[in-house]
Structure formats: C-alpha cells, structure tokens
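Support request from a user on the community tier.

User writes: "When I paste my structure tokens into the form, the page sometimes reloads and wipes my input. The last time it worked, I copied everything first. Here is what I submitted, just in case something in the input itself triggers the reload:"
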C-alpha cells in the first residue's frame, strides 16, 4: 500500500493482491490487511468510492469471519482469539448485516447482565453497535464506563466511543473527553478515537482541538501527549 499511496502501483492492483489472502489463517497478515484497508478507507472517505471500499472489506473479511465464528473453539490459541476480535470488529464496522445483528444481540445480553461478553469480544461489539447506533447506544456505553470497576474496561470504552456517527453525538463524546469522567492522560485516546472514527469525526476533532487548545496545551505542558494529540 505505501507504493500505491506514492503512485508507483495502482490501488486496484493492491486490492487484487488483498483478495488473494481470503483463505489466510495468520493473524499478523490479517492485522496488516486491516490496517492498510483502514488507511485506504480514510483516503477514500471524501470520495464516491467510500461505500465501495466498505463493500470490499465485507467481501474480503466475511469468509474468515464465518470460519472463526463468535465463540472460541477447543484448543485454539491466543492469536485465534485476537484474530476473531479483529475480523468481527472490521466486519461490524463495515456494516456486515449478520455481524451487526449478532453484535447487537450480544451487547443487549451483556448490558442486561444475562451473558457477559468476554474481554476479547468487547471492543469489536462496542465498535459495531456504536458505529450503527444512536443516542441511546451512546448513553448505554457511557453508563457502562461509569459503572466499570477496572480502568482497563474504562480505557477500552474510551478508545471506541469515536465510532459513533451522528454529528451531535460526536460532540457529546468530545465534551466527555475533557470531563472529570476521563483521566487527563486518557483524554487524548478519546479525541484520537473520534478523529479516526469517521470523516465527520476528523473535522469535529480538529475543530475541538483548536477551540480547546489553551486548555489542552496547559494540561499537557508540551509533553509527549500533546505531540500524540497533534499526530492523531
């Protein structure tokens, strides 16, 4: 993909190569594909091809998603669990119908305490329901954040809040980022999640950072977090 971005080879050729990995079982390969497709989707988000790339993601990731399923298989290793989370999150975010339906079902059971999600499935489920969710989905997620006993779970939720799509809800997430509910060192993760979540999120996060620059700069005093914020 770096060669495609530099104009050395066509993006179409890169996508053809990606299609050839459809039966690949290796986590590292899928992680790389996921990252590169994410970059491509970002580059295409201002064009008419954005929905096409989402369809391509659904087509490439659905066979491995069906093979892995939602539940761990006997004897599978740690990388299989990581791969399942990666693939289901990618499919859910891209609007794969069966993945979205199952994510919503499992999220409902999780919230109701009927069947608590395993740690490796929480991020993909949270991302999926938020991406295709509404104000009540966001409110439920913020409630889960408030109720979470472990900082690890709070951070997990903070990283995915930016998946929400509606402009007014994006603003709510950005306001939450600077609230007392979020540790100062974790504010950047929330803003970064918004910036990486959607075209609307990028614009809103950039404006939010400019509007609140003095507070953010004073908070981090020119340390590594301010440079990380600028990078995202």
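"...and here is what came back when it finally went through:"
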């Amino acid at each position: 993909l770096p060669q495609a971005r530099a104009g050395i080879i066509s993006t179409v050729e890169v996508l053809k190569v990606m299609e050839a990995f459809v039966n690949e079982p290796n986590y590292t390969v899928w992680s790389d594909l996921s990252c590169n497709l994410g970059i491509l989707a970002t580059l295409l988000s201002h064009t008419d091809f954005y929905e096409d790339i989402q369809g391509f993601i659904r087509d490439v990731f659905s066979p491995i998603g069906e093979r892995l399923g939602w539940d761990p298989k006997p004897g599978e290793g740690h990388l299989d669990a990581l791969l399942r989370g990666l693939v289901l999150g990618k499919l859910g975010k891209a609007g794969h119908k069966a993945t979205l339906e199952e994510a919503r079902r499992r999220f409902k059971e999780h919230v109701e305490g009927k069947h608590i999600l395993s740690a490796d499935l929480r991020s993909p489920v949270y991302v999926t329901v938020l991406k295709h969710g509404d104000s009540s989905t966001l409110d439920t997620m913020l409630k889960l954040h408030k109720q979470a006993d472990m900082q690890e779970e709070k951070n997990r939720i903070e990283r995915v809040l930016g998946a929400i799509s509606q402009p007014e809800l994006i603003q709510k997430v950005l306001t939450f980022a600077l609230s007392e509910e979020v540790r100062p060192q974790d504010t950047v993760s929330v803003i970064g999640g918004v910036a990486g979540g959607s075209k609307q999120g990028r614009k809103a996060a950039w404006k939010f950072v400019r509007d609140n620059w003095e507070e953010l700069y004073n908070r981090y005093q020119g340390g590594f977090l301010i440079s990380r914020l600028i990078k995202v």
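Agent notes: The reload is a front-end session timeout and is unrelated to the input. The chain has a mean pLDDT of 91. The radius of gyration is 18 Å. Escalated to web team.
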